[in-house]
Amino acid sequence: MKELPDDIRAVEATLFAAEEPMTEREIVDYVGEGVDVASALQVLAEQYAGRGINLVERGKRWHFQTAADMAHILRRERDEVRKLSRAAVETLAIIAYHEPVSRAEIEAIRGVQISKGTLDVLMEAGWVRPAGRREVPGRPLIYATTATFLQHFGLSSRRDLPGIDDLKAAGLLDPIDAAMEQLELETQRDED
C-alpha cells in the first residue's frame, strides 16, 4: 500500500485522536484551511471500507468505528441487563411526559406512593435528575429526565416521545385501559 499524502494523513490522525465524532468544520480547525477535508474523508472512507475499522459519517459527524461484523470480537464484558420494576417504569414515564414533576405529583398520577428507592434506581441509571425546587409552600424537589435518558432511548428531544396513538398501535397500553376506553365509547354512543 502506497503512502498517503500528508493532508490525508493529517485528517486521519485528527479523527483517530478525537474523543468524539467531528464535523468537517471541526476537522478543518485542526488541519488548516488549505486542506480539502471533504476529499480526504472520501479517500479515507474508501480505504477503510472492508477493514476491521471503518470511517463513517453519522449526523454530519465523522468517526472511526469497529466494523459491524467484528464488534463481537471486542466484547469481553456483557452489560448486565437490569429490568426495571413496574413502579420504576411508570415513574420514568410520568417524569418524561410531565417534567419537571415533584414526588407528590408522581404519586397523584400513579395513584400510589413511590418508594425513595424507585427514584434512586432511575437516578443511578442516569435517566432522571433533580431539577430544582417548585416555588410553592414546602418547596418540593422536582425531577426531570437527562440527556442520557434521551440517548439511551434514541430520542433527539422529549418531543420524540411516542404519543397515545403510537403506544396503542404498538400494543404497549394496558389491555384493561383499552377495554375501559372502548366501554366508555360504547356507553357514550348508547346515550346519544
Automatic annotation (TrEMBL):
<dbReference type="InterPro" id="IPR036390">
    <property type="entry name" value="WH_DNA-bd_sf"/>
</dbReference>
<dbReference type="GO" id="GO:0051304">
    <property type="term" value="P:chromosome separation"/>
</dbReference>
<keyword id="KW-0131">Cell cycle</keyword>
<keyword id="KW-0132">Cell division</keyword>
<dbReference type="InterPro" id="IPR005234">
    <property type="entry name" value="ScpB_csome_segregation"/>
</dbReference>
<keyword id="KW-0159">Chromosome partition</keyword>
<dbReference type="Pfam" id="PF04079">
    <property type="entry name" value="SMC_ScpB"/>
</dbReference>
<dbReference type="InterPro" id="IPR036388">
    <property type="entry name" value="WH-like_DNA-bd_sf"/>
</dbReference>
<dbReference type="GO" id="GO:0051301">
    <property type="term" value="P:cell division"/>
</dbReference>
<keyword id="KW-0963">Cytoplasm</keyword>
<protein>
    <submittedName>
        <fullName>SMC-Scp complex subunit ScpB</fullName>
    </submittedName>
</protein>
